[in-house]
Specification:
The protein has 293 residues and is of the alpha+beta class. The protein has two domains: 136 residues, no CATH class; 88 residues, no CATH class. The protein contains eleven helices and four strands; from the N terminus they run H-E-H-E-E-E-H-H-H-H-H-H-H-H-H.
């Protein structure tokens, strides 16, 4: 009986613990290192660290897991010291389709950490363990937060608060990316703006774009397009307040190609006002916007 109860407990933990489905890739092409085993071990360890941990108390099945990818492009490796960049992408399923919509796309250029092969990785929310654990855990909670926001308005707040706590603890290491003075597009500013009411239109647009727009595309594409246009026009207010907002860039880094696809096919709508908004708030994607006819 005890063995049966233990097995039942372990199976239950397995079903409820894993809320994220993330593919972590370590690219060491730029590193001059003959022994590639360390990079393969790091990749395997991080995949296990992210995908096997109970990051939340939610009970989800496989199709409800948060889908993300993280690509670590190493630029330097010396002993146990690693340097590089980290590309983080998050997507979510669209209702009544087989399509996954990109929600978040962010490039962290300040990745520095130490790692010994086969080093155990454990996340403790109350303490700072290492820069590697803080870095990966930070982006896991950001991923959980933006995906949650796309389903229910501002429901990602608990995850963003957890990421904020990670940042606060990590600032003690004085490594680049965690502090206000480290630049304008880093972890500090990312989580600061996600938690700030000053940038509320980003989170509102994230919800309206997906729930009122994308999730209605299969049943009423014309109304879905109109809802998406309304969500994009929300960025006017944010741009007028903070024209160089990091979250504006972050949103369109994820959505630009999808927006072009949506408004280049299907039922026609009057896109002129929204096109003017896009050229105003996201001029860096001007070549893409010109493709919309």
């Amino acid at each position: 009986m005890k063995r049966f109860l233990l097995l039942t407990f372990l199976l239950t933990q397995q079903l409820t613990a894993q809320v994220i489905d993330c593919q972590f890739v370590v690219n060491a092409d730029l590193v001059n290192q003959t022994n590639q085993q360390i990079f393969e071990t790091l990749q395997q360890s991080l995949n296990e660290f992210i995908n096997a941990k109970a990051w939340t108390d939610e009970n989800v099945d496989n199709k409800e897991k948060v889908k993300c990818s993280m690509v670590l492009n190493l630029t330097a490796y010396n002993g146990a010291q690693f340097e590089g960049t980290l590309q983080v992408q998050v997507e979510r399923p669209v209702y009544q389709t087989n399509y996954n919509s990109p929600v978040f796309n962010f490039l962290d250029k300040d990745v520095v950490f130490t790692y010994q092969e086969y080093q155990p990785l454990f996340y403790n929310p109350a303490t700072y363990e290492s820069n590697l654990i803080s870095l990966i855990s930070f982006y896991v909670f950001v991923a959980l937060g933006v995906e949650a926001d796309s389903f229910a308005l501002r429901s990602g707040t608990p995850y963003f608060k957890e990421a904020q706590q990670i940042l606060t603890l990590a600032q003690q290491n004085n490594l680049k990316g965690w502090n206000q003075a480290d630049g304008t597009r880093n972890r500090f500013w990312l989580i600061d703006t996600l938690n700030s009411n000053t940038f509320r239109e980003y989170r509102s647009a994230l919800y309206n774009y997906h729930r009122r727009g994308m999730d209605q595309m299969a049943t009423n594409p014309r109304e879905a397009k109109q809802a998406i246009m309304l969500s994009l026009n929300e960025f006017n207010a944010l741009f007028n307040r903070r024209p160089n907002a990091l979250l504006i860039q972050t949103f369109f880094d994820a959505k630009a190609d999808e927006i072009v696809d949506i408004f280049s096919a299907g039922p026609e709508v009057d896109f002129s006002d929204t096109l003017a908004t896009l050229n105003k708030v996201a001029p860096f994607f001007g070549p893409q916007w010109k493709q919309i006819k």
